[in-house]
Amino acid sequence: MDELIDLGLDDLALFARVVEAGGFTAAARRTGMPQATISRRIAQLEQRLGLPLLIRTTRRIALTEVGRRVHEHAHLMLGQASAALGAAAEMAREPAGRLKVSAPVILGQAFISSIMADFLLEHPKVNACLEWTTRIVDPLEEDVDVAIRVAQPPHPALSVVTLGRTRTRVYASPGWSGPDPSCPADLAGLEVFGIGRALEADEVSFMRGGEVTTVKIPRRMMANDVQPIIAAAARTGGVAFLPDFAAPVGWRELLTDWSTSNHEITALSAASRGALPKVRLFLDALKSGLAGAQRRHSA
User: Fold this and answer.
1) Domain total in the chain
2) Are residues 100 and 215 in the same domain?
3) Which residues lie closer than 8 Å to 249 by C-beta, 6 or more apart?
4) What pLDDT is stored for residue 107 in this prediction?
5) How far is CA 268 from the centre of its chain?
6) Are residues 145 and 284 in the same domain?
7) Is residue 116 within 8 Å of residue 129, measured between CB atoms?
8) Are residue 109 and residue 216 in the same domain, yes or no?
9) Chain centroid offset of residue 162 CA
10) Residue 2: is its pLDDT beyond 50?
11) Measured CA angle at 273 (ends 272, 279), to 5 deg
């Protein structure tokens, strides 16, 4: 890196300007620098490299083979420098542009929709594109600014913001009339509905402090979204496994000392996007909004 600094990145940039302008005279007009100064600095660059970059004639310049190779890289360097300056300038401006967000269906419906609505109200120059999905979205491979995940390990190249945690608990619907279970084993044989994958085994592990117990509980229905679970349990007067943030008002928690999962909720973004104002401020809004919603739910 020190060698690049000694070489003079500004002289490499000036060389690219000369080539793209088509000569020293045109480059002087574009840059506002004296032609003699430009010519001297390019000559000094060639001297430091120990190789000729340009073939000079009275009418025009031409690139040597080395000059063509150096110009290719110098041109890319200018593009990256322009992008860096643009990112810095955007940091100082009001958040604007399209914000693409992906989240699990459950979280999207329960929290993210309202958080995004408030965010759009506060930042009128931001446009949102939301995807509620059950698949794992990779911000490194897809055109997504923020991907929200539950219990999914992130790629080490991603920027990670921890939004909170969620537990899955047992809730009785308003029509539930049976005796309250006193331990997880009492759930076996009841009308139980569960959030989870269709091919998931009937065994459910319950946690209480450092204690873990596993019970076989056949569920009447399973789904990867809370809405069909809530609807079915409410219609039949059954009980349901639900994330703690998704339990409807009026439903009563059973086995309050036990939970069946404890997962971290994270927001992931590529490092190149995470510094943008629209992304950075939305991550802040997510963290405070999710924390506030969970506090209200637990109150």
Assistant:
1) 2
2) yes
3) none
4) 82
5) 3
6) yes
7) no
8) yes
9) 11
10) no
11) 155
CA-CA distances (angstroms) from residue 203 to 181, 200, 216, 232, 257? 17, 8, 4, 21, 19
Asked whether residue 265 falls in the same domain as residue 135, the answer is yes
Q: What is the pLDDT of residue 56?
A: 84
Q: Tokens 């539950």 appear where?
A: 150
Structure tokens at 151: 């219990």
User: What one-letter code names the amino acid at 234?
Assistant: A
The confidence band for 252, taking pLDDT boundaries of 50, 70 and 90, is: very high
Q: Would you call 252 helix, strand, or coil by DSSP? A: strand
Strand partners, 62: 55
Domain boundary pick from 66, 91, 116: 91
pLDDT tens string 273-286? 777 888 889 999 99
For tokens 């537990």, the residue is 167
Tokens of 291: 């924390």
Alpha-carbon gap, residue 257 to 269, rounded angstroms = 35
Q: Which of 91, 118, 144 is the last residue of a domain?
A: 91
Residue 60 domain boundaries: 2-91
197 and 265 belong to one structural domain: yes
Q: What is the pLDDT of residue 282?
A: 92
Q: How far apart are CA 244 and CA 226, in angstroms?
A: 11
Question: What sign has the CA pseudo-torsion 15, 21, 25, 28?
Answer: negative
pLDDT at 4 over 70: no
Asked if 165 and 178 touch (Cβ cutoff 8 Å), the reply is no
